[in-house]
């Protein structure tokens, strides 16, 4: 007699389909869960991203507005107006005025174009130039600033340190214009002798 083949237990045959169904159900449930999670992430991300970008833009715009400093035009310094030139002409102008009276006779005590003495001549010329100076030669010497290198328009004094008996107007190049003495006229002459001082007013 042939031995009978052993039959597999019925429980094993039946349990296999159940396990498969359970596995399929579990896999389907996991798939649905994953899909739901993915759907949730897909729905949430745009909102979060949208809000973040909006907030970033708002903050950036606010920051730019608050930190913006308008450019200011450079401050222009007021242009200083040139100072009014004094009416007193230059020293060369003094010399030019003095030469207008060449030939005027010497008159002791005279201080007009009708006749000049030495200090009357110098005081009149400087007055025409717009500068008032003392009347006598000694007073003019003490009122002036002593210089060692005379320039045209400076005064040439003769006498002593305390007294000047004669004065003329220096023209440059060792020449002066003066009313020299009685019987003479206003003229241009060389600076003679040893002047006690040269003075600038």
Automatic annotation (TrEMBL):
Q: Which SUPFAM superfamilies match?
A: Cysteine proteinases
Q: Which PROSITE patterns match?
A: NLPC_P60
For whether the record's keyword set contains Hydrolase, the answer is yes
Naturally occurring in which organism (per UniProt): Flexivirga aerilata
Residue ranges with Low complexity bias: 22-78
UniProt key word Protein biosynthesis: no
Q: For the region Disordered, what residue ranges are annotated?
A: 1-90
Concerning Gene3D superfamilies, the annotation shows: endopeptidase domain like (from Nostoc punctiforme)
Q: Which GO biological process annotations does it have?
A: proteolysis
Name this polypeptide is given: NlpC/P60 domain-containing protein
Residue ranges annotated for the NlpC/P60 domain, each copy included: 88-201
């Amino acid at each position: 007699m042939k031995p009978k083949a052993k039959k597999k237990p019925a429980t094993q045959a039946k349990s296999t389909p159940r396990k498969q169904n359970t596995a399929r159900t579990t896999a389907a449930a996991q798939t649905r869960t994953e899909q739901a999670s993915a759907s949730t992430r897909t729905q949430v991300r745009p909102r979060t991203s949208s809000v973040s970008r909006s907030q970033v833009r708002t903050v950036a715009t606010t920051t730019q507005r608050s930190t913006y400093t308008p450019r200011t035009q450079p401050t222009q310094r007021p242009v200083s107006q040139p100072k009014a030139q004094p009416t007193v002409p230059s020293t060369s102008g003094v010399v030019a005025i003095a030469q207008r009276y060449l030939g005027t006779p010497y008159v002791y005590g005279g201080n007009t174009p009708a006749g000049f003495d030495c200090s009357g001549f110098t005081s009149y010329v400087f007055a025409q130039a717009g500068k008032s100076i003392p009347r006598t030669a000694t007073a003019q010497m003490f009122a002036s600033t002593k210089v060692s290198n005379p320039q045209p328009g400076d005064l040439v004094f003769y006498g002593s340190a305390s007294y000047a008996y004669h004065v003329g107007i220096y023209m440059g190049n060792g020449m002066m214009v003066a009313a020299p003495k009685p019987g003479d006229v206003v003229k241009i002459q060389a600076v003679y002798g040893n002047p006690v001082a040269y003075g600038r007013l």
